Amino acid sequence: MPDTLAKAQVRAEAARLLALFEGQGAQVVETPILQPAETLLDLYGEDIRARAYVTSDPMMGEAMLRPDFTVPVVQMHMAEGAEPARYTYAGEVFRKQEDDPHRAPEYMQVGYEVFDRANPAASDAEVFSVFSDILAPQGLRAATGDLGILLAAVRGLTTTERRRNALLRHLWRPRRFRALLDRFSGRAQNPEGRKALAAGDPFEGMDAPVIGLRSRDEIEERIAALREDMTTPPIPESEVALLNDLLSMRETMTNVCENLRDLAVDMPSIMGAVERFSARCKALEARGVDVENLDFEGSFGRTTLEYYDGFVFGFYAASRPDLPPVATGGRYDALTRVLGRGSEIPAVGGVIRPELLLAAGGAA
Predict the structure, then answer these.
(1) Using CA atoms in the order 92, 93, 98, 102, what is the torsion angle rounded to 10 degrees?
(2) Can you give 345-360 as a three-state secondary structure string?
(3) Average pLDDT of the chain to the nearest whole number
(4) Record's PANTHER family (predicted)?
(5) 302 marked among binding-site residues
(6) SS3 81
(7) What backbone torsions phi and psi does residue 35 show, to the nearest 5 degrees?
(8) Whether the Cβ atoms of residue 131 and residue 313 lie closer than 8 Å to each other
(9) How far is it, in rounded angstroms, from Cα 149 to Cα 145?
(10) Residue-wise pLDDT tens digits, 104-147
């Protein structure tokens, strides 16, 4: 965030955006800045520690400064919200910026979330069009993607459930995902020493039931998994090629719809997701969105937090390539299942960073 933008100016812009979302029928809500760490660790594992600020509270135990609003808003809705529901909020979030020390670790978000099971495609279109209308005066470039298609493609690969789960877990870490895909498809060798570890007896000459922080049973289970993996046939090259085509796809939404249907002929696991994509295109058109000039990127959304599982979008300042996206959002149905404790509801939303909006050209 440029130092010249005063905090008061950013807060004024956040208030303006909040009022615009409230004008769409959204209820204004607030969430605590200090969040229990347990929920976030359950969702993202220990990896979240590299991105969040962790502290300790005498009553709460381990806690984190709010890394975003979506998780606490979903928790609030699943506990007490009526259906359908629209929420808006504004406040600070906190994320470590080790990869880019020039980005602020504390910044404002203003968000809009829709919980509605009637017509998910229409909800996707609603959220995107609301953001598009608000941001239109700044002339930002919009980009979209669909993680639901990628998830369906990975789930349909001809390989073991263990390998599919590993790829799904690392879908949001492109380098790790690529390394796993290359190894599982036979394009890359197993890490050095893995064959020897799988072939030998790691407990030979040892009496201790625990080695380091792992028990003997845990180590034996891991070695059994390594042995199974080393005897698993590679993922077929034809499937890897189709997945690569999907990941590298860059087209307008109108053109990509036909391309996706062609891919689905050879990758039937994505057909349901492609039909949802087609329904979304029609809903966006009905909202007046110019889908013929709206960009679609097959890999879009793979570096965000892992709760997105469908439509994803972002808005960028073309004249300021140094800036992060001014606004981002997407669908997160699976998150409502995880936090709903037996219940679920389709949900989609997004956030605008007011300081980036100001830096990109200011409010209208």
Answers:
(1) -30
(2) CCEEEEEECHHHHHHH
(3) 88
(4) HISTIDINE--TRNA LIGASE, MITOCHONDRIAL-RELATED, HISTIDYL-TRNA SYNTHETASE
(5) yes
(6) coil
(7) -115, 140
(8) yes
(9) 9
(10) 888 999 999 999 999 999 999 999 999 999 999 999 999 999 99
Q: Is 112 annotated as a binding residue?
A: no
Rounded Cα–Cα distance for residues 310 and 335 (Å): 11
Strand partners, 252: 295
Query: Measuring CA to CA, which residue among 147, 153, 93, 155 is closest to residue 124?
Result: 147
How far is the C-alpha of 20 from the C-alpha of 309, rounded, in Å? 27
- Residue 219 CB coordination number (10 Å): 16
CA distance 1 to 109: 13
> Per-residue pLDDT tens for 69-108?
999 999 999 998 889 999 999 999 998 876 665 568 889 9
Is residue 69 part of an annotated ligand binding site?
Answer: yes
The alpha helices in 171-236, defined as continuous H runs, are 174-184, 194-199, 216-230
44 annotated as ligand-binding: no
Spatial separation of the C-alpha atoms in residues 337 and 253, rounded to whole Å: 29
**What gap in Å lies between CA 357 and CA 27, rounded to an integer?**
23
Name the helix (H) or strand (E) containing 55. strand 54-57
Annotated binding residue 308: yes
Q: State yes or no: 86 annotated in a binding site.
A: no
SS3 category, 302: coil
55 annotated among ligand-binding-site residues? no
Long-range contacts of 171-176 (CB under 8 A, 24+ apart): 171/147, 171/302, 171/306, 172/302, 172/303, 172/304, 172/305, 172/306, 174/299, 174/302, 174/303
Q: Could you tell me whether strands 214-215 and 327-331 are parallel, antiparallel, or unpaired per DSSP bridges?
A: unpaired
Among all chains, which residue has been given the structure tokens 């036979």?
A: 186
Percent of the chain at pLDDT exceeding 70: 85
Which amino acid, 79?
A
